[in-house]
Sequence to fold (523 residues):
Amino acid sequence: MSSQEGTVYATYRVRTESPERAKDVEAIAEAIAYEQTVELPPALVPDSIRERVVGQTTSIQEVGEYHFDVTLAFNAKLADVNLSQLLNLIYGNVSIYDGVRLVDLSLPDVVLANYRGPNFGVEGVRALTGVYNRPLLATALKPNGATPDALAEMAHQFALGGGNIVKDDQNIVDDFTHFKTRVIACAEAVARANDRTGKTCLYFPHVSAPASTLRRQLEFVRDLGLKGVLLCPFITGLDTVRQVIADTGLVHMAHPAMTGSFTNPRDSGVDHGVLLGSLFRLAGADISIFPNKGGRFSFSEQTCQKITQYLRAPLGNLAPSLPSPGGGMHYENLGEMGTMYGEDSVLLVGGGLIGHKSNLTDATRSFIDEIESHFPDAPIPPARLRSDDRSEDFAERLLKFSSDFQWQSRPTSPYKDASDDSFKGVRRIELIGKYGEKTNTDLRYFEIEPGGYSSREHHQHTHVVIGARGQGVLLIGNERMILSKDDVAWIEPQEVHQLRNETNEPFGFYCIVDHERDRPIRV
Fold:
């Protein structure tokens, strides 16, 4: 959640068993403030540094016998611009203390602006699957030790049954050669099933590799045409995952492996919602997996709901993420689980699905039918709306053009945030797609002033650029093209590109993009 500008608020649940509890907790709060910032006794810290750097206690509340919630305020500049430093500030050395648990975190916009967050979020993942009206159904390829052909056949059957996301189990790890063989086999199996059903099942390989080959595996997945991956952020590293996911533009399905040592202790560690919700979103998780209530792990319904709340709560401009409860789920309680988590969720079913019928395809169909039966009044997917379903009064049919490249009822908007120094002299007008039109694409007009340029960036979605006025330069990788009026250019997914105006006249162009699309990644 967001806090006031310039301040990071961290709340710690402190346990103290002293009879003079209030006095002790104040001393503990001060110790946390100094430990997390300057690592010196108060007497050795100059006043000028104390005022700028040392955390300040803002509240102490008793929440139970011998337990207090202590909220500290930290200067946001101490969080720097990376997730590693933020973690160090809020729970670095104090994680070694006995009886101190991080239970809440509120970040200011100045910190949140450094994070891209989920590449796709709830709406983007829905757009990829084409399913808008119910929870998504996911399963895991298992067991570890099965041949690539056996795993591929399992993926094929699940996709044939209408399943939405099939991922590798997190314990399936190979060297790069075997990884490629397995991933290609599973990807081709899912693609064949999609061709038969006309639906879209997504396959997410598990990527776990040394730092030297991690990016290579992710780029292989992306270049194969797959849309996402399964990662274990606490094994790979939160900030490493954040960076490679932002760079590759993939859907990030986050697995909670190794987080239990932080979330499960009662009087230490990090709250489930903060870690598997907020911190995983900062690390770019589009989907966050966690143990469902009633499974082989001890998560309560309250804990599961809190994680779900943090995945969806406002967090600067970061997109909300999909909760993905797993375990304790079977055909008979699908309705209960759907009601508990809502339509914007991913129900991850393993053994309950695999063991439901002898044929995984039939079992998957049964599970999908059962889920859909509990969401009969869900909204119609945008892509299925017919032209005669449109309301005549919500979208204007004709936008009148004026000679200065303005359009009736279409204001000029900022190209990007004014604090972004990656561009110069660009204005933007949203023409079609943002004003209630039921379209699969958006049409925008951009104009670059003499000497100006757009951001140098790449993204997963394609661009179509059409020259409208003047003359500009389109840079794609190392290729340089002159774009004049009525020229048409196409920019492929993940191609690094930039548009520049090297003339003395305005350069304007139309741009057509997918309505549901990933966010650009600046280079």
Summary: The chain has 16 helices and 27 strands. Confidence is low (pLDDT under 50) at residues 383-395.
